[in-house]
Amino acid sequence: MKFKFGKIEEEIITRKDFSLKKARKFLSNETICVLGYGVQGPGQALNLRDNEFNVIVGQRKNSKSWDNALKDGWIENKTLFSIEEGVEKSTIIMFLLSDAGQIAVWPKIKKYLSSGKGLYFSHGFGLTFKKKTKIYTPKNIDIFLVAPKGSGTSLRRLFKEGKGLNSSYAINQDYTGKAKKRALSIGMGIGSAFLFETTFKKEVYSDLTGERGSLMGAIQGLFSAQYKILRENGHSPSEAFNETVEELTQSLMPLIAEKGMDWMYENCSTTAQRGALDWWKTFRDINIPLFINLYKEVSSGREAEKTILSNSKKNYRKNLKKELKEIKESELWKTGKIVRKLRP
């Protein structure tokens, strides 16, 4: 279905355009193997299973993720296999290991990618930065991605509520002539609300920019800055937290998600309206240079290089815990923990 966004026309694939029934029928003779059972793996695998696709899981044995897969009802040697066995037994491989995991596992599985198989990603990192990841793919397979716009946990939760997450899809290589239908079928099978087209490169550039920007990095920085200034001017922790985080996440964000920012502006006090309208462009103008620099760092590959270097260090997990501890033990998020417990 075609939609116009200003002067730009896009094709959006909805559940009416490509039904779950059609998706199941198209993949009825395919065996799908979900590699990795960490962030995206469980949600996508369980949704496919519940939607009655022929799906198995490939995971490293004697690991925490292997144990989690067993708890979720995957059966060893029937629907749960080692990574190599899973790839060998399947016709479509969903490569859902972490970016670091993909780099480590790729040499072990590439020999099992026989002619006509499908290789699926939910992130364009591995192939976009292949000079750094060394993921060089064969030419006689289909390569495509579906990238849900949210975590695997959210994908599963919304699926169980009868809803869905929007997802992008991209075709990197169409060897069999059916790569697009494979992508759309899995996209619907994992519980996408609708699908919009992108490329591997654009997916990873937008994803890395978003993670470092408004989705995670920038929002934590903004929270931290506002909370700090309120506290330094004598406001209590609970007041500073509620005005910085709680009101945004519990009251305003749901309204923005439902009706849009303009509707929210129309339905708040005139004082709030005036201040928001006077200040939003100032925040935009201050942040545009930051985002220009951020996008350059992402598109140049420097962010990818930093990520790969950091993840490859033996003490990565130890250092990560230290960085997360700094956030967790800050007054801002200690206050947040107490406030969350007080919610009815």
Which short descriptors sum up this protein?
344 residues; magnesium; 2 domains; 17 helices; 10-stranded mixed beta sheet; single chain; Rossmann fold; alpha/beta
Written overview of the protein:
There is one protein chain. The protein is an alpha/beta fold and 344 residues long. The chain has helices at 20-26, 41-50, 64-71, 83-89, 99-109, 125-128, 130-133, 152-160, 179-189, 200-212, 217-232, 237-259, 261-266, 270-299, 302-312, 316-328, 331-341; strands at 2-5, 8-14, 32-35, 55-58, 80-81, 92-95, 118-121, 142-148, 165-173, 192-197. The protein has a ten-stranded mixed β-sheet with strand order 1-2-10-9-8-7-6-3-4-5, with helices on both faces. Helix 10 packs across helix 14 (270-299). The longest helix is centred in the C-terminal third of the chain and has 30 residues, at 270-299. The model has no long low-confidence stretch (mean pLDDT 95).
